[in-house]
Amino acid sequence: MSHIDCDICIIGAGSGGLSVAAGAAQMGARVVLVEKGEMGGDCLNSGCVPSKALLAAAKQAHQMTKGAEMGITPVAPEIDFAAVKDHVARSIATIAPVDSQERFEGFGVTVIREHARFTSPDEMQAGDTTIKARRFVLATGSRPLVPPIDGIEDTPYFTNETIFDLREKPRHLLVIGGGPIGIEMAQAHRRLGCEVTVIEGMKALGKDDPELAGQLLDSLRAEGIRIEEDAKVTAVSGREGAITVETEKGRFEGSHMLMAVGREVVTDGLGLDVAHVKHDRKGIAVGADLRSETNRRVYAVGDAAGGLMFTHVAGYHAGVIIRSMLFGLPSKAKTSHIPWATYTDPGLAQVGLTEAQARAAHGDALRVIRAAFDENDRAIAETRTKGMLKLMAVKGRPVGATIYGANADDLIGVWAIAIASGLRLSKIAGAVLPYPSFGEINKRAAGNYFSASLFDNKWVKTAVRTVQRWVP
User: Fold this and answer.
1) What residue stretches are annotated with the FAD/NAD(P)-binding domain (predicted)?
2) DSSP of 122-163, one letter per residue?
């Protein structure tokens, strides 16, 4: 048995935990990082990185089937599904050293690869080591939610934690859940030659703007993906190669099944009750400062904090609590500036309020501005004109933006910065951008906010005529 005294003990080596560990250790704090699984957490090993690598391979295959309008003869790609998974594995392996135990030990972090649990409000046990810390950070993340569907225990299924290990191409993939994960995996597998059916109990992409989400779903259906909404699953059965899903709308049959209905926070086995840390199935009960409501030694970041479940939120949370823990400065997390994206092609991205939320919050003060991709010269040159930007603005400032189209995940960044910094639309409209570029779509949307007041205003026209008449 060994004993460690430290300033900060972090549980979980995903994005949030690693960010806290790196920052705190390099600024002089004594840091212990405990991780029972793989370094890098879900994002590196079974989430963001492998899914985007799979989508990239699928996009490459899809591009080979297009190009006739540019004078390029389409061809049917030959897809080696196992080799695609090798590409996914290489992507993970290339990034893994950045999150490795060796790198963090180089920062001065003590890394313990064991399960951790509280033994008192200020101590944890990790294997044979007792850790006493001034502060604890719970960065335990989340795992795939598998609901208690009739027959699920006897029916083979995949989650995001296992689907990337599948090296034989599914003949027909049944995707249970029409959220971002399910929709991304649906497009990836369809473009890699699988039949795909998405089964959603409510509305697919239900947390996004319904107008632009609907356009994305129409695009996916045009690629041959069957998307069944309002089809609550009642039972599943079968074996690998022959899966049946019973729903309130009927029966669906396929060869493989992917469960993508959501995620649940990992808090079990941590001894939270022993530490007097209030929690529920949604996560740790924390305030805006991300500190436990019932044990002020404990912080929670990322999924464990019970809010938005995105890797970039965990990284943001890390910055919030580092200011508090290391410097004693008041620091609070907010969500109004947090973007998210569905990485399909075309993509869908959101920051701030959707149109419906903005109308509820601001009423008649809201203006909804649109900029279409088919009015952007770069999009026209690349034949990627499918898409729309919707900008929600109040008194000259953006309060939300939704983008459906090519590079939506990159384009949304401007609006994330604008909302976070309170930037006025005049600043974006006045920016000089390279021509031609997709970024001009953002500039056009900002400019459209002022167009009506400038071009359709009789007083403006009168003033211009007066100046032209009298000013030499």
Assistant:
1) 7-317
2) TEEEETTEEEEEEEEEE---EEE-----BTGGGS--B-TTTG
Residues 6+ apart with CB under 8 A from 143: 42, 161, 263, 264, 266
The closest alpha carbon to 369, from 468, 451, 264, 464, belongs to: 451
Binding-site residue numbers for NAD(+) are 177-184, 200, 262
Report the distance separating Cα 208 and Cα 348, nearest Å.
Answer: 9
* Residue for token pair 């770069």: 378
Please check the confidence at residue 468 and state whether its pLDDT lies above 80.
Answer: no
* Helices within 161-284 (DSSP H only): 180-191, 210-222
The answer for residues whose C-beta is within 8 angstroms of residue 25's C-beta and 6 or more apart is 31, 104, 107, 108, 109
Q: Answer yes or no: are the C-beta atoms of 420 and 412 closer than 8 Å.
A: no
Residues forming the annotated binding site?
52, 140-142, 177-184, 200, 262, 303, 309-312
| For residues 246-252, average pLDDT | 96
Tell me, which fold does domain 2-39+100-143+264-327 have in CATH?
A: FAD/NAD(P)-binding domain (3.50.50)
**Distance between CA 439 and CA 417 in Å, rounded?**
14
pLDDT digits (tens, 9 = 90+) for 288-314: 999 999 999 999 999 999 999 999 999
Q: Domain locations in the chain? A: 2-39+100-143+264-327, 152-262, 339-455
Annotated binding site for FAD: 52, 140-142, 303, 309-312
Whether the CB-CB separation of 20 and 102 falls below 8 Å is answered with no
Contact between 71 and 59 (Cβ < 8 Å): no
* Statement: residue 79 has pLDDT above 90: yes
CATH number of 152-262: 3.50.50.60
What percent of the chain has pLDDT above 70? 97
pTM (whole model) above 0.70 = yes
Tokens of 17: 């935990």
Please state the CATH superfamily assignment of the domain spanning residues 339-455 in this structure. FAD/NAD-linked reductase, C-terminal dimerisation domain (3.30.390.30)
